[in-house]
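re: ur question from yesterday

yeah so i grabbed the chain u mentioned. its 245 aa long if i counted rite. heres the sequnce exactly as i have it in my notes:
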Amino acid sequence: MKKLFNLLVALILALPSLGQQQSTYFEMRTYTAHEGKMPDLIKRFQNHTAGIFERIGMENVGYFLPVDETDNTLTYILGYPDQASRDAMWEVFLNDPEWKKVYQESIKDGNLVKSIEEVFMTLAPGLNNRPKPSPSGVFQLRVYHCFEGRVDNLVARFRDHTQALFEKQGLRNYPYFLTVEKDGAQSKLVYLLGAENQAEFEEAFQAFIKDPEWIKARDASEADGKIVEKVDAKFLKTLPFSPMK
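ran it thru and got these structure tokens back, copy pasting raw so excuse formatting
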């Protein structure tokens, strides 16, 4: 086991630095905290975990809390050079002496995390070429479930119409991803959309929905059948140490 760990460390150290590498594989992790433990969980990420991730070579993309304060979750996105690197980096992280010490000290009064949800993703082709947006006060995490065989149609509609129409209304496009499904099922489209605040977001989104240009593009794209089966949407706000703003 020690030999394997040393080999993994060597492989991680051989990877390019974050300033040189381009993440191609991503992971969105959602932690549900035990009652009353969210402040301690945030503190552990801010003071230790995010820094250890970075030292190992992971890319800290963004850290978020739900706007709905009754939702006891913390969501964050990490980037890796590729899938194999992800697995190697997590092996190194879990065996890292600094992390082991921090973890044990943080759970002296009980575990912080009740459950963890993992979603693996790659960048959606053609949807991440727009200029970096200015910082937002609120985000909406949107997950699109498509009818079978229709996700490519959805990506094309976003590329050719939707993203520009969002910006027309003042909404800000952040990264767009496609999920990597373990069972070989069709990918979902996952993205973040930003605005100054929730009221401005909702007003802009309603203007988008009623925009004749959007209605025309939507109807044309669905001439041979509906594309989206359902959309999950959740308002988020960034934590102070989040690289994404």
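noticed a couple things. The helical segments are 2-14, 38-56, 83-94, 97-106, 151-168, 198-210, 212-221. also The first strand starts at residue 25 and ends at 33.
anyway ttyl
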